[in-house]
Amino acid sequence: MDKAPGTFELLGKDGDARAGLLHTAHGVIETPIFMPVGTVGSVKALAPDDLNAAGAQIILGNTYHLYLRPGDELVARRGGLHEFIRWNRPILTDSGGFQAFSLSKLNKMKVDGVEFRSHIDGSKHMFTPEKVISIQRNLNSDIMMPLDVCLGYGATYEEAEKAVKRTTEWAARCREAYPAHSAGNLLFGIVQGCTYPELREASARQLMNIGFEGYSIGGLAVGEPKNLMMKNLRVLNPVLPQDKPRYLMGVGTPLDILHAIEAGVDMFDCVLPTRNARNGTLYTSEGKINIKRREYAEDDGPLDPKCNCYTCRTFSRAYLRHLYVSQELLAFRLNSLHNITYFLNMVRGARRAILEGRYAAFKAEYEARYPEEDLLFDAPEA
Question: Phi then psi for 182, rounded to 5 degrees?
Answer without folding.
Answer: -70, -40
